[in-house]
Amino acid sequence: MQTWLMKSEPEVFSIEHLRKKGHAPWDGVRNYQARNFMRDMKAGDLVLFYHSSCQPPGVAGLARVTKESHPDPTAWDKKGDSFDPRSTREKPLWFMVEVTYLETFPHFVTLDEVKADGYLAGMRLTQKGSRLSVQPVGRKHFDRVVALGRDVRFTSENRHVLDNRGKTG
DNA sequence: GCCAACGTTGGC
DNA sequence: GCCAACGTTGGC
To answer: How many domains does chain A have?
Structure first.
């Protein structure tokens, strides 16, 4: 099983949208590298759902790949924003996968936290100029982000537990 | 809104 | 195949 990170602008499609729908086509990707990574995805692969172009950006939760790559029909929709006349039904150019909602982290793992975490050094996400909307994540990095996201000690309601440690004793 | 860092396009 | 112009991403 491989692990990945996929970016979405929450104003367009957030993890909350995915939660409500249950599953969704990850369509509209128009970058060759990202497309190639999606082609490598297998059903069952796990995905960090990343919110981009928002304040703050960061990893919001987890999803699972539930359908392997198949032609992206939005490339054929002349009226849509993702239309690409080079993609035909006979020779599709763009592909997509289906992702299914797994969980929203109790703690939203911000990009700043990812950058500051020693275990996460070298993640593609934080490398300069890296803009890929679909990218592989090493298993150790993946597990670390999940651990941060699930650690309720870091949630805003519980932050004082850590902040106040030692102040009274 | 700015702009750095890429990626893509198309003339030559 | 080179590269200038243009488009996009996405943090800031």
So the answer is: 1
